[in-house]
Structures are given as C-alpha cells and as structure tokens.
C-alpha cells in the first residue's frame, strides 16, 4: 500500500484535531465522499485517512458506499484501493464479520478496482487468522485474472494467510500448481524459507504455467 507523505499525515492530524469533537462517522463518510470526487490522489487519500479514524463507529452500510466509490472509479489506482481496503474495509469486517461473504460477488465484478478490493479487504483479517476459507476461495476464483494488479493482490492476501498457517498455504499452492500465476506465487511465498520457496516454484512450473 502506498504510504502517505509526511505532509499529508500532518494535514490529516490537524484536521482530525479540528473536527473530532463535532464529527461522527457519518460526517467523516460524507467528507470522504466529497474528497473522492477530487482530481488529485492526495486529496482523495486524505478523505479515506480521515474516515479510517472513525472506524469504531462504522456501520454495515459503509460496504455499499465503498463499492460505489470503487465501481465509480473514484478509487482508480492501486494506492487508493489498498488504502480503502486495508484501513476502511478491513476494520469494517472486524466490526461486522458477516459482511465478508459479500466480497464473493465483488470478485466477479468487471471493474478492476472492485476485484482488487475483494482481495485487499481480507488482508487485515487474514493477518489475524480470520476469514481464511473465504480468502482462499476468492484467490482461487481470481486465478485466471490477467491483470497484474489482481495477481499481486492475490499473492499478498495468500502470503498473509500463510502467516498464521504456513502449512495450509504451502498445501494450497502445490495443489493448485500451474493454475496459480507465477506473480501470485512469488508474492505468496515471500516469507517462506528460500529452500521451500524454490521447491514450490519448481514443483508448480509446467509448460502451462502463467
């Protein structure tokens, strides 16, 4: 995920200090909605960063709002999509776990950013060992996606799944073999010991590998 610049973080901290006493989640969501209409990435990032400050009050309707932002190309690059996924949607799923199943529909979207968010939103829960079955299911569904941005996001998610259960990840990668794009494999195995990483890459390499 793209890191906010020091200047942007300072602006965000000052803004939070100015509005914290009078704003709630709804005001922050409306502010984000307005800034996501702006041309500049930093302005849109600011809206999402501020919204994330109110995660303790997130309500389920935020999922539909986030989908509209993505489908409307208001988060139209990987940095904004990942900021929304990890700092807004991840915490939302922590508060409302039942919403996670709806990401299955997102994985079938024609919109690149909706599909990437279906993966990235599960990164924070996966780090805690949560929603692993769903994470593997969505990663599997998107194996044939030709976008490099989807392949990298799938690898990132799988890597986080492996943090709490590396054996399950290794078994999954070997079982799916050459169906897993090489980009996804490289990301997914980054934290394995080199010998195991090399073995997986070799055992999944066939003439049909992506």
Description:
The protein is built from 13 helices and no strands. The model has no long low-confidence stretch (mean pLDDT 94). Helix 5 packs across helix 7 (112-120), helix 9 (132-141) packs antiparallel against helix 10 and helix 10 (148-164) crosses helix 11 (166-176). With 210 residues, it is mostly helical. The chain is 67% helix and 0% strand.
Strand content: under 5%
What structural class do you assign from the helix and strand content?
A: mainly alpha
Radius of gyration: 18 Å
Number of strands: 0
Helix content: 55-70%
**Euclidean distance between termini CA atoms:** 25 Å
Uncertain stretches of 5 or more adjacent residues: none
Gross geometry: elongated
Mean of residue pLDDT? 94
Helix and strand run:
HHHHHHHHHHHHH
Task: Please count the helical segments.
Answer: 13
Question: Main sheet, how many strands, which sense, barrel?
Answer: none
């Amino acid at each position: 995920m793209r890191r906010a610049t020091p200047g942007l973080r300072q602006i965000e901290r000052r803004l939070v200090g100015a509005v914290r006493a009078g704003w709630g989640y709804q005001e922050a969501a409306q502010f984000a909605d307005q800034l996501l209409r702006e041309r500049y990435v930093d302005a849109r990032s600011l809206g999402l960063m501020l919204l994330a400050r109110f995660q303790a009050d997130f309500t389920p309707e935020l999922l539909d709002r986030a989908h509209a932002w993505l489908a409307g190309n208001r988060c139209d690059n990987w940095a904004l999509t990942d900021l929304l996924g990890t700092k807004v949607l991840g915490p939302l799923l922590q508060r409302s776990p039942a919403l996670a199943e709806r990401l299955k529909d997102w994985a079938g979207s024609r919109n690149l950013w909706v599909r990437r968010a279906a993966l990235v939103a599960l990164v924070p829960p996966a780090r805690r060992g949560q929603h692993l079955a769903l994470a593997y299911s969505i990663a599997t569904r998107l194996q044939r996606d030709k976008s490099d941005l989807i392949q990298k996001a799938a690898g990132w998610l799988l890597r986080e799944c492996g943090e709490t259960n590396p054996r399950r990840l290794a078994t999954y990668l070997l079982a799916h073999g050459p169906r897993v794009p090489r980009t996804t494999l490289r990301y997914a195995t980054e934290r394995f010991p080199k010998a195991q990483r090399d073995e997986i890459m070799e055992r999944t390499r066939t003439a049909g590998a992506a």
